[in-house]
Amino acid sequence: MSARQPNRSDTGGWLIDRSRVEIFTFDGREIPFHPGDTVASALLAAGETLVGRSFKLHRPRGIFGLGAEEPNALLTLGAGATLTPNARATMIPAKPGMQVSSQNRWPSLKHDAFGLLDKVKAVLPAGFYYKTFMWPASRWMTYEKYIRRMAGLGPAPRERDTEQYARRNIHCDVLIAGGGPAGLAAAEAAAAKGQSVILAHARPSFGGGVHSMPQGPHRRWFRDTLARLEAMPNVRLMTSTTVAGYYEHELLTLSERVRDRDSAAGTAPTERFWEVRAGRVIIATGAIERPLLFANNDRPGVMLASAAQGYLWRFGVLAGQAPILFGGDDSLYPLARALKDAGAIVRAVVDLRSDPGLVAAAYVADGGKVIAGAMVAKAHGTKRVSGAEIWRIDEGTPHVQETIPTDAILISGGFGPSLQLHAQSKGALDWDENLGSFVPGTPNGANCSIGGARGVFDLPNAIADGVAAGKAEPLPERDQADRSTAPQPWELLNPTGGIRFVDLQNDVADKDIALAAREGWHSIEHVKRYTTLGMGTDQGKIAGPIGLALLAAATGKEVAKTGLTTFRPPATPVTFGAVAGGHLGEVGHAIRRSAADAWHESQNAVFIDAGLWRRPQYYPSNGATLGEAYRAEAAAVRAGLGLVDVSTLGKIDLAGPDAAKLMDRLYCNTMGTLKVGRGRYGLMLREDGRVFDDGVVFRLADDRFHLTCTTGGAGAVYQHIEHALQVLWPDLKAYATPVSEEWFAAAIAGPKAREYLAALAPELDVSNEGLPMMRLAETMIAGVPARVMRMSYSGELSFEINVPADWGGHVWAHMISTGNSYGLTTYGTEAMGALRIEKGHVTHSEADGRTTPDDLGLGRMASRKKDAIGVRALDLPALQESGRKQLVGLVADDPAAAFPQGAQVTAEALGDQPRPSLGHVSSYAYSSELKRMVALALLKDGRALHGQTVHVVSPIMGVAAAAKVTDPVMIDPDGERLRG
Amino acid sequence: MMLIPCPHCGPRPETEFVYGGDANVKRPDPTAPDAEWADFIYFRDNPKGAHRELWLHAAGCHSWLTVERDTVTHALGSVSYTKDSAE
Hints:
The complex is a heterodimer.
Chain A: E1 22-26, E2 29-33, H1 39-45, E3 52-53, E4 60-61, E5 74-77, E6 84-88, E7 99-101, H2 128-133, H3 140-150, E8 165-177, H4 181-192, E9 197-200, H5 217-230, E10 235-238, E11 241-247, E12 251-257, E13 271-283, E14 287-289, E15 302-304, H6 305-315, E16 323-327, H7 332-341, E17 348-351, H8 358-365, E18 370-372, E19 374-380, E20 387-392, E21 399-405, E22 408-412, E23 415-417, H9 420-424, E24 429-432, E25 437-440, E26 447-449, H10 459-470, E27 501-503, E28 508-509, H11 510-518, H12 524-531, H13 543-555, H14 559-562, H15 576-580, H16 597-602, E29 606-610, E30 613-618, H17 626-639, E31 642-645, E32 650-655, H18 659-666, E33 679-685, E34 691-701, E35 704-709, H19 714-728, E36 735-738, E37 743-749, H20 753-760, E38 776-781, E39 784-790, E40 798-804, H21 808-819, E41 825-826, H22 829-839, E42 885-892, E43 904-906, E44 917-927, E45 932-940, E46 949-954, E47 959-966, H23 976-979
Parallel strand pairs in A: 1-7, 8-9, 8-13, 9-10, 13-26, 15-22, 16-17, 16-22, 17-18, 31-41
Antiparallel strand pairs in A: 1-2, 3-4, 5-6, 5-7, 11-12, 12-13, 14-23, 19-20, 20-21, 24-25, 27-28, 29-30, 31-37, 32-35, 32-36, 33-34, 34-35, 37-40, 38-39, 39-40, 42-45, 42-47, 43-44, 43-46, 44-45, 46-47
Chain B: E1 3-6, E2 10-13, E3 18-22, H1 34-42, E4 50-56, E5 64-70, E6 76-81, H2 82-85
Antiparallel strand pairs in B: 1-2, 3-4, 4-5, 5-6
């Protein structure tokens, strides 16, 4: 013991190196520790009892547990770019120089302004936020920011994380979760059979419960077993590795902490995230002690007895100098003796049983104090326990026995298996009446739970479990524990009427659960969400079982029938960085680039994502801003000549003797009659009659078609065609091949397009007779074989040129240099959009999954003379009804008016009153031709509104503009330009 | 994440596949009445337990597969090419 570590004892300390003392800081204060300490054990040793403020009420909280179940001691590590909030002090190894801060307090941990909230707990009952802050709805925005400031965890990092993370995938025969005695035994037995084994353990060193015990033969067994495992080539030992998720077919995710943040980087990442596909899984994650309920059971100094035992033997740390032990079984007495031997003054053992039996009697005979048939009813003290109010409950009416001064109340409500992984794998849960706990039932998948994780809590039997599981043999029969005569934790009386917390992390008290039950919430899933029980980062590891039993009592149901909430991964929190791994920033996802991408980049094009592709949105050389550039680009196309890279459009080659037959079934319009060398615009429908995708189709040969589809739809269209070929009509002889990346494609458009094409392709007859609309010709451009297709998206005279993708950059460069003398302007997707909006061409903004061909004004395309996907549905009554939204054009009245994003359309201008919506704007742009904003909109019975004035409004943006309803084709309705 | 044994590619993770719905649904004849078509388009059974369903090996061989799956346990039964199971 030293002045700086007043709670460090000479007893125990199996995991620490007492020869060295290092320092980290906690809220700026220096905390000495020994290598091997956790942040929690070091804080306890230093006498730092108060470590945080609670989530909602800002009550002072101390360290409550030993491991991942810890609800209170959530701390912030580091600062700036390496800041990590909400780290569990119990799981973080103490390291020299580490910067640790408390959370959810202001201005300081000891003097917290929001601590006043605790005084008004009466006005913060379950469901308070739902009841109080939801009306008027508009005020939620106001309340929310204050509530967020008051209630919460640690701060999110403000800076970009500078650490490195990695992801790994691996297979093994056996994955063992948990490296305590059962897991170690299982690993050795499985490895001895020659199986490849991964043994994952959340702590930096293996052993688990072995280290929470005094000296004995088990320590030697542990050292020898570990040494043998280390020598086995087929065993991968992973420490500081948490098994976080158990998914279908034995896929598990592991989060490995490789090194400390801020520490010397080298080449190692901070964390590795593993996906393990295992042949079978052995769950050896141990058990968690249950708390006992009494008034102010959340005060710093109240701790699980098993945690106090762990701190003593693992780290040589006393949870208190003068503790009281409180529980209902014999496990209290060895701990009381050990604490006494280690230098603590054990004030009393408060035993719920009126006749505690021989072990207690022996303890009394050795001079210990036992208060039997009694309970701790209330803790005194605020920032630290100062006393325990003891009530007798075994004789007549409960009454106060005495109040004993103490600095720690160590509680034990019995143990329950850690069920997370078993439950995540969707294994059944059985209620064990004797344990008063759920235990793993029939597993789902190739797994078994062993040791504490199935309710086997003693060392020899846990090891026997491990040996059997490792050999893949049936597990030994589990001893049925005698039911303790002590009441279960949720059966305890509350004679003082003080607040008793069930969920320490989320400040849920027993009366919140009772209130929820009174208000009609009887499903545990509803109570969880209404009260926030078990919704913290600890996943209710401690609170869940108690809360469940309280709900069962409040609703008069059996616990077994009330059931647990669904367990979802991760079992313990995993950092976002670990999940993301190296998939960050530029390498976050693959980018598809057109063959001309380098040229676009050389022109400083601004890119936009289109599916996985990136496309030039506009070229800043044509205008400083997006608005200026696209208007200039679109105007140049209409006035002269434009060039756009359209490589991203989906392309599918369809070939085979039945290709024409298949085409007729894929498209709602007739395709089988198309002549070789000609093209046609086509619509594909979903089976429910909605437009699925569109594009121009060319027939290359009797048995071969070239399909184009939208950039974003290309993948789905290909799957759709394969579905037709393999599922619907496997008798059809045809093959589909996606060829989008095979071709580089560029469209030239504008009055000068023919002249320009003649220069590009001198061998080609470019006259209106030689190459009419919807005709395909093959020629050479820049020495490369090319397909030239006459078609128009912009509404101008236009040709699309396809060349093999590898030659795309070469051909594009040739087109640019040739274009100089024709005043060529390159344009991006924004100008392309403006041009097609003026012409009423639809994209997925209009074909949005709700619209039929008729809604889009394309009803006549759907042929009823043949069977095609989606055509039959068009005759269903619902699609014939009036009131459907139909595609129209909108032209702004005022040339200066702006159309807002996400606009609705109303018949009358917005006033104080809400107006019914006629429909919505699907696309809008500035028309360089009409010199004002134009839009495509879907309006109820819109075609009947042509000529009327409507209002394009966005109440949120405070914008409204009058506009005239028109046909969707707003310029050159007869298509004279494109046929010229 | 399930491991689906593709008859062409071998066992592959679920993320390589696209779900295609109930494999027992048959597309009616175009002359069938509205009710039959509405049933085909809009209504699906949601069985607890055994289910025959379609999966496309989209990031693999592009085969549409008929897979027997238990919707509760995710245990898989037979996996075959849909093309071969057509009547």
